[in-house]
Structures are given as C-alpha cells and as structure tokens.
Amino acid sequence: MPTHTTGTREQWLQARIELLQAEKELTRRSDELARRRQELPWVRVDKPYQFETDEGSGSLQDLFHGRSQLLIYHFMFGPDYTAGCPSCSAIADGFNGVAVHLANHDVTLSAVSRAPLAKLQAFKRRMGWTFPWASSSGSDFNTDFNVRVTEEQQRNGGVEYNYRREGAWQVRGSDGPVVEMANMTGTDVATYIRERPGMSAFVLEDGVVYHTYSAYARGLDGVWGMYQWLDRAPLGRNESGIWWRRHDEYGAR
C-alpha cells in the first residue's frame, strides 16, 4: 500500500471543492466533444458487407434490428483465436446492462468479430452475454474500418490504426504482457495483434447507411465502465502486468 498525505476534514473539503471546479470544466469539455462528434459529416456506406448472425446471413443494415442508429464494438476475436481477447471481454461485460437502455433510445449495440459465428456463439454462452454478436468472416468490414492487419502489412508496415500509420512490427522486449494476452486467446503475439479493438457508429436514414464515427485505443476508455469506477477509487487503475482477465477466470488466479 503506497503512502499518501493525510489531513483534517476541513483540508479535505477545501481540496475537494477545488477539484470539483476542474471536474465541472471536464464535464463541460466532454459535452462539447459529444456535440462535435455528432457534427461530423456522415459518410455513405455503399459496400454490401455480409455478416453471419444468430438470425442468419445479413447485411450491415440488418444489424440495426429495425432501429435508426447502430453502435458496433470491434471485438478482438480472430479466426485463429480459441477465446476472445481478455481486455475486450472486460469491456463487453458492461454491454448486457446498457443494451436495453440504448435500444430504448433507438440505438442497437452489437459486437462484430472475424471469427466464425460458431466460435462467437460458444464464447458468448461461456461468458453469459446476451447482446448481438455478428461474424464478419469473409467480408472486408474489419479491414475497411481499420481493425484488421494483414500479415503483409504487419511484415512491411503501412498499417493504419487510430488515424496513424505504423511501421513494420518487430518483437520487442516490452512485449511480455502481450505474450500473455496472446496465450489467453490461444495464439502467438503476431496473430493476436493482427486484430485491433475499436468502435464505430452508423445511422440509417431513408434506407441508406452512413458511417458517423469511429474510435480506437484509448478512445475506448469512455465505454469501459470498469475504468470509470477505478478512476474514482483511492489507488486508481493500479495497473501492473496483465490484470485484464475474463470474469470467469478470477477464481483461478
């Protein structure tokens, strides 16, 4: 347990009031960012993507399930994985509770991964999830939305992720935690990191689908409910080594 300053209730209250002003400013800035997200130009999606879902084969429009807005979480679960990414799994643990409320606001929440549907369904049952999860296997969807890296791109560079170009991938001494993450998905590091996390938003208007927003990497912090709680805990995120685990594995630690 790290040492920390202590003080009187009066000292705490003074410091808390000062912090409150900063929190209010952050809230106002967050509101402004939300407005700017909603003002981004819409980009028409004409490519006929096909997905495998619990209801059968369907288009991107079918993933809306009759609603006008669609939020997709790009879940790291590649065709060669034997289980879903543990960090993506931690994020997805919060989906069941919010999906019904999003639906009440005319928004469908769905996950999409490249693994075959049967793998996704089996993992979904294991985790006790009920939110929609579609397989994009055989389509360009993950590539077009920058959450899939080919072996050639990985070898030669030219990967675009989080709106930046990456060079060729090389094994690094700091990859130790990633090795463990890869092991948890039944893959090697190179295979594991060819999938990338992200989220994308779409709107359906007059029968036409438009892409409105995408976020990656730390841009996903806001949809990771656990982080919002940890940021308010005394020791914060307290991250050391691999601490993302699937909820059914904590007893094995």
Can you characterise this structure?
The structure is a single chain. With 253 residues, the protein is α+β, with helices and mostly antiparallel strands. It has helices at 9-38, 86-92, 95-104, 117-127, 141-144, 151-156, 176-184, 189-192, 225-230; strands at 43-44, 50-53, 56-59, 69-74, 107-113, 133-135, 159-161, 164-166, 198-205, 208-216. The protein has a six-stranded mixed sheet. The two termini are 20 Å apart.
List keywords for this structure.
six-stranded mixed sheet; globular; 19% strand; two-stranded antiparallel sheet; 9 helices
Topology:
Elements: H1 9-38, E1 43-44, E2 50-53, E3 56-59, E4 69-74, H2 86-92, H3 95-104, E5 107-113, H4 117-127, E6 133-135, H5 141-144, H6 151-156, E7 159-161, E8 164-166, H7 176-184, H8 189-192, E9 198-205, E10 208-216, H9 225-230
Parallel strand pairs: 4-5, 5-6
Antiparallel strand pairs: 1-10, 2-3, 4-9, 7-8, 9-10
Regions with little confidence, pLDDT below 50 for 5+ residues: none
Tell me the structural class: alpha+beta
Helix and strand pattern: HEEEEHHEHEHHEEHHEEH
Tell me the number of helical segments per DSSP (H or I, 4 or more residues long): 9
Helix content: 25-40%
The Cα radius of gyration reads: 20 Å
Largest sheet: 6 strands, mixed
DSSP strand (E) fraction? 15-25%
State the strand order across the main sheet: 1-10-9-4-5-6
Q: Choose one word for the global shape.
A: globular
Count of strand segments: 10
Mean pLDDT: 91
Distance between the termini: 20 Å
